[in-house]
Amino acid sequence: MISATGLVKRYKDVEALAGLDLAVPEGKVLALLGPNGAGKTTAVRCLTTLLKPEAGSARVAGIDVIADPAAAKAKIGLSGQYAAVDEHLTASENLVMIGRLYHLGRQVARTRAQELLERFDLTEFANRPTKTYSGGQRRRLDLACALVAAPPVIVLDEPTTGLDVRSRQLMWDVIRELVSDGATLLLTTQYLEEADVLADDIVVIDHGREIAHGTADELKAQTGGQRIEVVLASSADTEAAVRVLNEVAVGEVQVSDGGRELKAAAGEEAASDLRRVLEAFERDAVKVLDVGLRRPTLDDVFLSLTGHESTEADQ
Questions:
Q1: What is the 3-class SS of the chain, one letter each residue?
Q2: Are residues 253 and 284 in the same domain?
Q3: Domain that holds residue 253
Q4: Is 18 in the same domain as 133?
Q5: Is the same domain home to 157 and 239?
Q6: Total number of domains constituting the chain
Q7: Which end of the chain is more exposed for a tag (fewer CB within 10 A), N or C?
Q8: What b/e readout covers 189-198, taking b as 16+ CB neighbours within 10 angstroms?
Q9: Contacts of 182 (CB under 8 A, 6+ apart)
Q10: Are residues 213 and 235 in the same domain?
Q11: Does one domain contain both 97 and 173?
């Protein structure tokens, strides 16, 4: 339902996309994972006809987005990185307006608006101007607007960035419903957890090119699975703590914060390894402020794949 081959896009001297390939089967979710500046939003804009690439090709629902952008747009629902709603209109008015722009009849547009207000838990605020909405409410309304015409392909550009825990969980629930109804989704995100929860497949990009491709479990396996993280009470115990962690670590022990914070990739028996570490710390009188097993973060994945952390940068 979504395919791209060799997409290239440049902004003056910056190559935002450097030959990106993507493929999303019908009814599946592909997460495009990467830090700010990796090229995620540029890829979204090319796939949704908002930008024309310098090279490569892209198709949505079998339609060439470069040769026939109008036909492609009719198949796409897009929720961009920032909520694009008219803040002077109410939620109901925004949804009805979108329906009319899609040439739905007036009554059909109103009925569809009411359905979406209920689905996104916005009925209580339906007749308030959207400029009075919280960030989470505006984000939910923006996604509702993308679904007015029930498009078969939905593109979500960092849909939960900046949302609180409740709003993020609600968005995840809605996304799951869309997929269960047969929609095909392209989701960009900075959060490995989000990709883990929602995606069937993940493409990790950096500097506009693919650097890894697989399921969340496959990607996390490249970072050694779970990690043992330790915060020491004093850097005087760093040498002893590193010696203990080296006995169970997969790869090198990472040391930061002047020697007080340590990370070690654990093997398949992570819980047993942690128990051994705690016993050794007690034996060697190593004092800790915090210790535990942590799942890999986006930085862990990027550090493993590229040798550098996912630092924020302007695209």
A1: CEEEEEEEEEECCEEEEEEEEEEECCCCEEEEECCCCCCHHHHHHHHCCCCCCCEEEEEECCEECCCCHHHHHCCEEEECCCCCCCCCCEHHHHHHHHHHHCCCCHHHHHHHHHHHHHHCCCHHHCCCEHHHCCHHHHHHHHHHHHCCCCCCEEEEECCCCCCCHHHHHHHHHHHHHHHHCCCEEEEEECCHHHHHHHCCEEEEEECCEEEEEECHHHHHHCCCCCEEEEEECCHHHHHHHHHHHHCCCCCCCEEEHHHCEEEEECCCCHHHHHHHHHHHHHHCCCCEEEEEEECCCHHHHHHHHHCCCCCCCCC
A2: yes
A3: 224-295
A4: yes
A5: no
A6: 2
A7: C
A8: bbbbebbbbb
A9: 26, 27, 152
A10: no
A11: yes
Q: Would you state the structure tokens that stand for residue 91, as one six-digit string?
A: 């939620």
Provide the residue-wise pLDDT of the chain in tens; the chain has 315 residues: 999 999 999 998 899 999 999 999 999 999 998 878 889 999 999 999 999 999 999 999 999 999 999 999 999 999 988 878 999 999 999 999 999 999 999 999 999 999 999 988 899 989 999 999 988 889 889 999 999 999 999 999 988 887 888 888 888 998 899 899 999 999 998 777 888 889 999 999 988 999 999 988 788 777 667 889 999 999 999 999 999 999 998 888 989 988 899 998 888 888 999 999 999 999 999 999 999 998 776 666 767 776 655 544 433
Q: What span, in angstroms and rounded, lies between the C-alpha atoms of 175 and 28?
A: 11
Nearest CA among 111, 95, 93, 102 for reference residue 145: 95
Q: State the residue for tokens 């990027």.
A: 302
pTM score: 0.78
- Which of 220, 250, 282 delimits the end of a domain? 220
